[in-house]
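Hey, quick one: can you model this chain's 3D structure?
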Amino acid sequence: MRLLDLKKDYHVHCNYNDHSSRELSIENVTRIAEKINLNTLAFTEHVRKTSDWIPKYLEEIDRIVSSGTKMTIISGFEAKILNDGTVDFPSEYEGYFLIASFHTKFYNKQNWLSALKSAISLQHVKVIGHLAPEESFELTEDELIELSTLLKENEKTVEINAKYRRPPMKWLRIFKENHVNLHLGSDAHRITEIGNFNSITNLIEFINN
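Sure thing. Here's the predicted structure for all 209 residues.
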């Protein structure tokens, strides 16, 4: 298993959504990321199938990349896992970096698991974001081992998310034992959150030791 690299942030938002700081422009995000010496930055704006701003968003990122930044900049999205196990994502952009995450509660363990397994099997999904159980249920060790196998078979990465401090330590222990690929995501919605992993120091130390 690769060590977690604190110079890589694979989950950063910008002001193309309606709930991030206005100062979180693509230009400002890039400037701050360079200032704190990140070497990899993934823009992963919230998206729906009906989102009409995507071409402008991608063009703006491309302009930054063309300006000669030394960082690796990834154009990507974060999309909601739906009840049927699909993601709310326009098919014409399936070649881009895509995080699939739960953003609504299912209140049913089997429905949640079924949707998650289906999302993991989707080829265009690269990462499962801020993964954790709902308050009404927990996964057994056997279920987590089965989940680990599915993640590995489908070459998916599980994000260690600084905003929500997920996945839980129990889950990470099993993911680590079963060699699931992991990386860091700040889930930044404010300038100060970019590349800031202080909230998950314990999770990072557990994986890297």
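One thing worth noting: The radius of gyration is 17 Å.
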